[in-house]
Amino acid sequence: MSDTITIVAVLRAADGAAEKVAGILHRAVAPSRAEAGCRGYVLHHDRSDHQRFVFVEQWADMAAIEAHRQAPHYLAMGKALDGLIVEREVMLLDAVP
């Protein structure tokens, strides 16, 4: 089994906020990919639901995830999204061998 931890984070923008949310989320992609321990970080937009965004991330270990959660760009993203997200689900996943 790989030690890589996959995160799937599903976010739903408030009505009328999808475009603004998309911009905020997109700005976090490049700096997140540059973090030590990041093995993949892709933002998706649901074709069937304009308000839903999905991050699929891969991290080396929990220490890398905790460092990511304290990174300035991650904290800025959270602050910028305040009041713009109505649903959020985050799953930390291990691959099944």
From TrEMBL:
Keywords linked to the UniProt accession: Monooxygenase, Oxidoreductase
Residue ranges of domain ABM in the record: 5-93
One Gene Ontology term, aspect cellular component: cytosol
Electron transport keyword on record: no
Superkingdom of source: Bacteria
SUPFAM superfamilies on file: Dimeric alpha+beta barrel
UniProt xrefs under Gene3D superfamilies: 3.30.70.100
InterPro entries: ABM_dom, AI-2_Isomerase_LsrG, Dimeric_a/b-barrel
GO molecular function: monooxygenase activity
Claim: Ribosomal protein is one of the keywords in the record: no
Name of this protein: Antibiotic biosynthesis monooxygenase
Species the sequence originates in: Halopseudomonas pachastrellae
